[in-house]
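I had to read the description of the data format several times before I understood it. In essence, backbone conformation is discretised, so a fold becomes a row of integers matching the chain in length. I therefore recommend that a typical entry be quoted early in the introduction. For illustration, here is how one protein appears when written out as sequence plus structure tokens.

***
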Amino acid sequence: MIKKLASHVREYKKQAIATPLFMVGEVSMETVIPLVMSYLIDRGITPGDMGQIWLYGLILLLTAMISLFSGVMSGRMAAVSSAGFARNLRHDMYYTIQEYSFSNIDKFSTSSIITRLTTDVTNVQNAFQMILRMAVRAPMTLIFSMIMAMTINARISMVFLLALPVLGGGIYLIMTRTHPIFRRVFKTYDKLNNVVQENLHGIRVVKNFVREDYEVEKFNGISESIYRDFTKAEKQLAFMNPLMMICIYTCTLLISWLGARAIIASGNNPELGMTNGQLMSLITYVIQILSSLMMVSFVFLMIIMSRASAQRIVEVLDEKSDITSPEKAVTEIRDGSVDFDHVHFSYASRSERDTLSDIDLHIPSGAVAGILGGTGSGKSTLVQLIPRLYDVSSGAVRVGGVDTRDYDLTALRDGVAMVLQKNELFSGTIRDNLRWGNEHATDEEIEEACRLAQADPFIREFPDGYDTWIEQGGTNVSGGQKQRLCIARALLKKPKILILDDSTSAVDTKTDALIRAGFRSFIPETTKIIIAQRVSSVQDADMIIVLDGGAVADCGTHEELLARCEIYREVYESQTKGGEDE
């Protein structure tokens, strides 16, 4: 996991390597300062020698300046490298997610992906910065200070060894008890984000059904769960600081007592015992050593918190798309013909029942094919197999006579334009949204596509026309307007196959008829596949496919199906009876 994450530092390696190097300079100067201070006291202040005071004073100033410069540079390099590391992680995760197939995306909820891209990356970033600085500084300070302390008085310095097993054991126990809690907390964060996202997305429904109190209660329940887990973890972590303070104060008291005895026993003679300056330096080294242990505890704390986040990030990065382009991929679609060759499909590999069963169809290039069926009959699933949003469980789907699995994915999806059941617009102008279909489209091409989709009239009614700003999700246009804009966007791709997945349900029947008539007149070579709930939307199609329970119940023209298909006849009569009675 560490190796996997470290590979994402990339162009910030120089800063990451420079951070510990500058830290060496800072730590080495900090450990020299107490020794110089002891010389200043013993050789300058105590005998009253101003020459020695000036000498060691200048040395102190120089070491302090070097330490300051090294510390500033170390902090700067750590900040740059950690921010760059987080940037690369977010970029690589987002890029990896873009490569996912629908089945890969189904493994992660939207809220979980958002948490991983934000909270989890921030936790790993903080831990990375802490490791670059503290994980280098702490052991170096510990080693350098121990060496200096041993040089002054090895016997008294052995006091430090008493604190190490106590502190190390305490940190280990705290780590093992808190890590599972933090891992559980981040999963609960996913649920919290999901509740917030669901509430904001459906706020109109919430208000319409006066369910604000229910949503607040649901949010409070998950928030309370996070609070309980964090409180439980923090209670465990709260023992770390007092444990550290006990070790520091105990060691300071013991060294002060032993040092004072050594000074008295030697009569302040450096050759027989300790001097005042040496005792002061030894106490300073005690504080540095135990402070470095405290830094180690903070590093462990960050590692505890970030370990769960790191695992969640690696899960996203390690997830490989199960739909990829083959090595020698076909890059050109010959025509818009579509063949389903005994296709079976199931979303779950161990599902007892297939979503689609033995689909065997041929849709000629340039034909208009309608698909009709009840809810859950597999209409949307069927058309999603054409641009290879999912792979078939068995059988084959062929576009232009070639198996979709043999195509380059980009080439295949460029040749298939699909207007989904749930239309989606992005924040930006109408012109920007339409250019999703073709980023190089001219204004004339955009207007032509909008006229074909019956969107040009209402666009021109806006004060800013094609430069009208669309809010996120297209909330400032109606459902029918949104559908027509999405159809125009799909037409700009100039596809071989155009799929409308119930994409005219929000427009009136007259506009629906005009759109279909425009398709026949202006894009006759494009294969049109129309999923609809209204028989009127597909009755003039060259072929109508009736699905029932994931299987083809019948296929034929409007007149043929009225004569022989009971399902189609029942739907037709239920939709036209009111008009006939009137």
Observations:
- The chain has two domains: 2-318, 338-423+497-581.
- The chain has 20 helices and twelve strands.
